[in-house]
Amino acid sequence: MLHGEFDAFGVVNATRDETFIAPTARPTTSKRVLKHFGVETVIIGTCVAPHIKAVLSAPITTYRLVDLPATVDASFVWTGTDCGSVSGTRTDTLVWSHNCNHVGIAHPTTMIMLRITIGDIELRCTYTSARTGSGPPCTPVE
Q: What domains appear along the chain, each with residue ranges and CATH number?
């Protein structure tokens, strides 16, 4: 049996010092069966999945990954901007200066993507547009 401390995201500080994240819709009460180290663990509780939050202060949009515990050792790769310049492509925060030569600042069809790697687990997060708002929950990459 796997022993460890549990939080809304899964097993933390497990006996093998590994972390498992299994996002679900936010916020929600759920019963999840997690398979980790070949063992099924049932977690019942309220969880908030990591997701992207965007803030537009024209012509700059700042995208930030929120609701990922600070104790999680993760790497980040952002992609998807279609003009202008970016900074922070390898951090949990992307800053996009989209002072582009076109009409409008909202970029309604531009999909910003974030790929998070935590050990051998990968999550994909998306956010469409350069407007202020919150994206859907990040999902596991199969």
A: 5-47 (no CATH), 51-140 (2.60.40)
